[in-house]
């Protein structure tokens, strides 16, 4: 049991180091050698815990989802806006996510199962958020289940555009605009979908505090 606990601690240490290296150097700069050096291992020693770079990066994304997790039932539209703002502060991690996402559509890719499972859960969570905000129908007439994939597409599509042109694309601002199109900000949960100005702005310190818990 002690050996297993040490192995889990070592894996967690490697994931934290990989997260730091990705944030500093981006997806392509995050080599196995750079991560191994940061935790005092040889590259061969690192491969004992993660046999490929792809396996390590998928594990980083899984850990990121756990670090970013908000308890089920506590997600709100304003927190989604906050998450987009928070992601704009860590381009290396967003770059890793986006690069692996693009590659994962090929058969047999090690990240395919991760993204397939993740997107199913995300669509379900987003539908629940929209139902809590608007009831069974959004102001435009869509059901929460119909609107949820569109919200996912907007979030990920904005990430790609922002990564390619960060000085041109205002990712958080564009997502706030999308929420306004949905009628976000003042929905009462009864399907009326009233909107209020400024309802999407968030305290990032509050969000960051959530991520650290």
**Helix and strand run:** HHHHHHHHHH
Largest sheet: none
Structural class: mainly alpha
Given as residue ranges, the uncertain stretches (5+ residues, pLDDT < 50) are 184-213
Rg over alpha carbons = 19 Å
Number of extended strands: 0
**Count of helical stretches:** 10
Query: Into which percent range does the helicity of residues fall?
Result: 55-70%
Approximate strand percentage: under 5%
What is the residue-averaged pLDDT? 81
Query: How many angstroms separate the termini?
Result: 26 Å
Task: Give the key terms.
mainly alpha; disordered C terminus; elongated; 213 residues
What does this structure look like?
By secondary structure, the chain is mostly helical. It contains 10 helices and no strands. It has helices spanning 2-29, 32-38, 43-47, 53-67, 77-87, 91-103, 112-134, 144-164, 171-182, 204-211. Helix 1 crosses helix 4. The longest helix is centred in the N-terminal third of the chain and has 28 residues, at 2-29. Residues 184-213 have low confidence and may be disordered.
Note the topology:
Blueprint (H helix, E strand, L loop, with lengths): L1 H28 L2 H7 L4 H5 L5 H15 L9 H11 L3 H13 L8 H23 L9 H21 L6 H12 L21 H8 L2
Helix pairs in contact: 1-2, 1-4, 1-6, 4-6, 5-9, 6-8, 7-8, 8-9
Summarize the structure.
By secondary structure, this protein is an all-alpha fold. It has helices at 2-29, 32-38, 43-47, 53-67, 77-87, 91-103, 112-134, 144-164, 171-182, 204-211. Residues 184-213 have low confidence and may be disordered.
């Amino acid at each position: 049991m002690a050996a297993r606990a040490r192995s889990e601690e070592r894996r967690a240490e490697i994931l934290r180091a990989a997260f730091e290296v990705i944030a500093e150097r981006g997806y392509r700069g995050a080599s196995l050698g750079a991560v191994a050096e940061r935790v005092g291992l040889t590259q061969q020693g690192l491969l004992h815990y993660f046999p490929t770079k792809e396996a390590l990066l998928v594990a980083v994304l899984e850990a990121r989802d756990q670090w970013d997790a908000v308890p089920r039932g506590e997600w709100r539209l304003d927190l989604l806006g906050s998450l987009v703002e928070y992601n704009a502060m860590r381009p290396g991690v967003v770059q890793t996510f986006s690069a692996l996402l693009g590659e994962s559509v090929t058969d047999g890719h090690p990240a395919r199962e991760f993204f397939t499972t993740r997107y199913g859960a995300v669509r379900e969570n987003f539908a629940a958020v929209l139902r809590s905000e608007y009831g069974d129908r959004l102001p435009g007439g869509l059901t929460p289940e119909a609107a949820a994939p569109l919200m996912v597409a907007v979030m990920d599509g904005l990430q790609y555009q922002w990564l390619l042109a960060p000085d041109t694309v205002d990712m958080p601002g564009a997502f706030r605009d999308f929420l306004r199109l949905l009628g976000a900000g003042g929905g009462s949960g009864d399907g009326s979908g009233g909107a209020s100005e400024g309802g999407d702005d968030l305290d990032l310190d509050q969000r960051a505090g959530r991520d650290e818990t």
